[in-house]
Design goal:
This protein has 7 helices and 6 strands. It has one domain (2-170): Orthogonal Bundle (Arc Repressor Mutant, subunit A), CATH 1.10.10. The chain starts with a strand and ends with a helix. It has helices at residues 11-28, 35-47, 53-62, 69-81, 133-142, 158-161, 164-170, and strands at 2-4, 85-88, 93-96, 113-117, 123-127, 151-155.
Amino acid sequence: MSAIGFERHDHAGCIDDAMRQAESRCKADKLQFTPMRRRVFEILLEAHRAFGAYDILEVLVQDGHAAQPPTVYRALDFLLKAGLIHRIERLNAYAACALLDEHGHGAHDHVPAFLICRHCRSVAEAEGDLTISGLAEAAAATGFLVERQVVEAEGLCPACRKDPAAAEVAA
């Protein structure tokens, strides 16, 4: 299993690829990828960390947008439904999907698995053999239908593990 988000990489290329993939997805699905939706997605891509709606609103205001909370929540709702972002339950925040393919689709039949740094709020999306099938089979045996499953693990990212202040909080 590997995690996308903590390793060093070409971040500008990462953002460009994700934006192209999102545009492809929206075009193929005939979804309107408006400038506001695009900017909210860019904000989530820029730092590989989880952002709350009001964090996003603050960035938009700094950008000069006259955005209000409903504008941000509508954009987030669109991006969630399009499969371009995930909601990080533990943080009541959102992060861009790191597992988009070249057509802008999230990995099929994958359970989002997030590694969340409790110190800097960076988020890595893990990929591997996590699938919905195991839990779905167990649930089906009881007549329960699984509609959504999220795995979240909280700890310290590699950078914060080296930071004495972050390690001190862990003790």
